[in-house]
Amino acid sequence: MSFPTLSEFPALVPEVERALAYTEGTHTVADIQAMITAGHAQLWPGERSVVVTQLRETPQKRLLHVFLAAGAMDEIKALMPIVYEWGKVMGCTGASFTGRKGWARTFVTKEHGWEAKWTTFTKALS
Asked: How far apart are CA 30 and CA 26, in angstroms?
């Protein structure tokens, strides 16, 4: 399976920026582009949306992690079966999704096979 080229990335920058606004400054658009270029993340573009995934290796499993998603929810939802299938081809046995609480009202629900398992807490160390 071939991935879209980064030539599609500039058109998606506004959506990437929108999603990065919730990361508390952990990544920039340039960081995301560099991750994709280096093969550390995968770009799944839509016409009005974007999904960025990563493969996560643990000692016992390979997981598909949805790192960033923004844009038209119907389009993101339509992209996800393609993303899941690619994850299976890559040997992933599960998936994770990091997002704000509002994602729980979307396709990231029990009805679609997702289950909220943990809560992430953050603390500034300044």
From this structure: 12
Q: Are 113 and 74 in contact (CB under 8 A)?
A: no
What is the predicted pLDDT for the residue at 5? 61
- Report DSSP state, residue 4: P
CA distance 81 to 119: 25
For residue 32, give its domain range.
6-106
- Record the pTM: 0.88
The candidate with the shortest Cα–Cα distance to 48, out of 18, 22, 91, is 18
CATH code for the domain of 68: 3.40.630.30
Residue 88 lies in a domain: yes
How many domains in the chain?
1
